[in-house]
DNA sequence: GTTGAGCGTT
């Protein structure tokens, strides 16, 4: 049984109760579920009146000597501070307004303890967001749990978030996946996972979170033990993950290499991932795939991912943006290394604290907030949302090596583009060379 | 009374 810790994003806000693990620790991921971008907790000690940090080790927050009896306040990296949910909900509503609402699917929860009840299942997953359904499958005769269940969330972002990480229910690691009841390959949902190579042992979970948190909200960090020289980081936004791919970054003085994390056992660079492969499995189901494949450039992936996973397709008509190239052939998005003016991923709002990102954080900024320029956004147009009203221009002035490509014409989201059939299915109706518009997925 | 990869009586 777990205890509930009162956590707030700001000292003046009403706390949210977040369940601890059975060992009494509180998972940072549980906190992040409610407070995206949080990197730790602090509390005001009654005696010293000072703020004290909560010990964090490998994603587990350890209670102070006094226990979890205080109200704990989230720590955020520098300017990343944000109120718990305004950014989230703002961007969400915008996203949903412009698109048919991103629909949640039932999710299967594998690996539940035999003893976990529906109530407990609900209690746990409710901490991520509104839960519409929770059931534990049982043997009709004995009434005993079969060790798995199903849940469904109300908000798609919640689903994304939950899919993006491992879970601990009643002391057991559980996996949440999109069900494949129809036998075949099943549905692998891209969850923004990247492979971090050339890692050194002195780089911790926290180091990775701190460093890469600049680029977007992180939902999971996994460093295999014993140490193997690499790690996986999962971003809430697949775009952020893809944008970082194939880059070198200096973390704690070490140059680590970021590349795509692909499911083990299939080399599917060119297969279009028709039936998205294997599950959303644990970290060990992933291995590195060399970045060299011809279709593996970030833009390709971005195209597919953006369309597929965010369901912007039907409306991705290009043009119209401030710098829009008209028609359906806006230039491909260019990711600015340093937030230059051509950055299509800079949001319209010019400030470093742009509340229009999907994940709340600098989700689409290719660079840390501090270096964001005032470049107009072609990503969403008005309001700088992920497809706000008005412009839908994805393209714009920044092209990729001069090629232009359309982003329109994907087949959609729910049952075709993303979830169940595959998501390399862009039809490529864009103009120009269409270089990034193939249905080959990645 | 056990178990630990998987996929749902409606």
TrEMBL record:
Gene3D superfamilies hit by this protein: 3.30.70.330
GO cellular component: chromatin; mitochondrion; nucleoplasm
Localization of this protein: Mitochondrion; Nucleus
Organism: Meganyctiphanes norvegica (Northern krill)
GO biological process, one term: regulation of gene expression
Biased composition, class Low complexity, residue ranges: 283-298, 336-349
Superkingdom as given in the UniProt entry: Eukaryota
Residue segments, region Disordered: 257-298, 313-382, 396-442
Cited Pfam families: RRM_1, TDP-43_N
Name of the protein this chain belongs to: TAR DNA-binding protein 43
The keyword Coiled coil belongs to this UniProt entry's keyword annotation: no
Keyword line: DNA-binding, Mitochondrion, mRNA processing, mRNA splicing, Nucleus, Repeat, Repressor, RNA-binding, Transcription, Transcription regulation
Signal peptide extent: none
Organism taxonomic ancestry: Eukaryota, Metazoa, Ecdysozoa, Arthropoda, Crustacea
Positions of the RRM domain: 105-181, 192-263
GO terms of molecular function: double-stranded DNA binding; RNA binding
Biased composition (Gly residues): 272-282, 316-333, 409-442
CDD domains found in the cross-reference section: NTD_TDP-43, RRM1_TDP43, RRM2_TDP43
InterPro entries: Nucleotide-bd_a/b_plait_sf, RBD_domain_sf, RRM_dom, TDP-43_N
């Amino acid at each position: 049984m777990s205890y509930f810790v009162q956590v707030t994003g700001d000292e003046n806000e009403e706390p949210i109760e977040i369940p601890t693990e059975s060992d009494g620790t509180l998972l940072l991921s549980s906190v992040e579920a409610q407070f995206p971008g949080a990197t730790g907790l602090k509390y005001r000690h009654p005696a010293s009146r000072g703020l004290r940090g909560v010990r964090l080790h490998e994603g587990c927050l350890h209670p102070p000597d006094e226990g979890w009896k205080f109200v704990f306040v989230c720590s955020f990296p520098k300017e990343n501070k944000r109120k718990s949910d305004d950014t989230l909900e703002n961007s969400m509503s915008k996203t949903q307004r412009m698109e048919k609402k991103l629909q949640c699917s039932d999710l299967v929860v594998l690996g539940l303890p035999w003893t976990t009840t529906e109530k407990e299942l609900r209690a746990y997953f409710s901490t991520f967001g509104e839960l519409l359904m929770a059931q534990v499958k049982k043997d009709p005769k004995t009434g005993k749990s079969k060790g798995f269940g199903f849940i469904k969330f109300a908000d798609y972002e919640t689903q994304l978030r939950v899919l993006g990480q491992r879970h601990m229910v009643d002391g057991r690691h559980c996996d949440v996946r999109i069900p494949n009841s129809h036998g075949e390959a099943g549905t692998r949902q891209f969850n923004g996972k990247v492979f971090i190579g050339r890692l050194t042992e002195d780089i911790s979970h926290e180091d990775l979170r701190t460093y890469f948190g600049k680029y977007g909200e992180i939902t999971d960090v996994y460093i295999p033990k014993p140490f193997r020289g690499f790690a996986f980081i999962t971003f809430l936004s697949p775009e952020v993950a893809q944008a970082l791919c194939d880059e070198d970054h200096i973390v704690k003085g070490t140059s680590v290499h970021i590349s795509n994390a692909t499911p083990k056992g299939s080399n599917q660079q060119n297969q279009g991932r028709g039936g998205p492969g294997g599950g959303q499995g644990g970290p060990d189901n992933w291995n590195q795939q060399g970045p060299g494949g011809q279709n593996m450039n970030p833009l390709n992936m971005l195209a597919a991912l953006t369309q597929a996973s965010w369901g912007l397709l039907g409306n991705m008509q290009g043009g119209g943006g401030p710098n829009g190239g008209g028609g359906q052939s806006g230039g491909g998005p260019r990711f600015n290394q340093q937030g230059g003016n051509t950055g299509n991923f800079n949001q319209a709002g010019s400030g470093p604290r742009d509340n229009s990102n999907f994940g709340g954080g600098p989700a689409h900024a290719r660079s840390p907030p501090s270096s964001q320029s005032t470049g107009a956004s072609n990503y969403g147009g008005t309001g700088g949302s992920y497809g706000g009203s008005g412009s839908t221009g994805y393209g714009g002035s920044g092209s990729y090596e001069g090629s232009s490509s359309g982003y329109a014409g994907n087949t959609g989201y729910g049952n075709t583009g993303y979830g169940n059939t595959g998501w390399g299915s862009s039809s490529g109706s864009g103009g120009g060379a269409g270089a990034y518009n193939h249905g080959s997925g990645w």
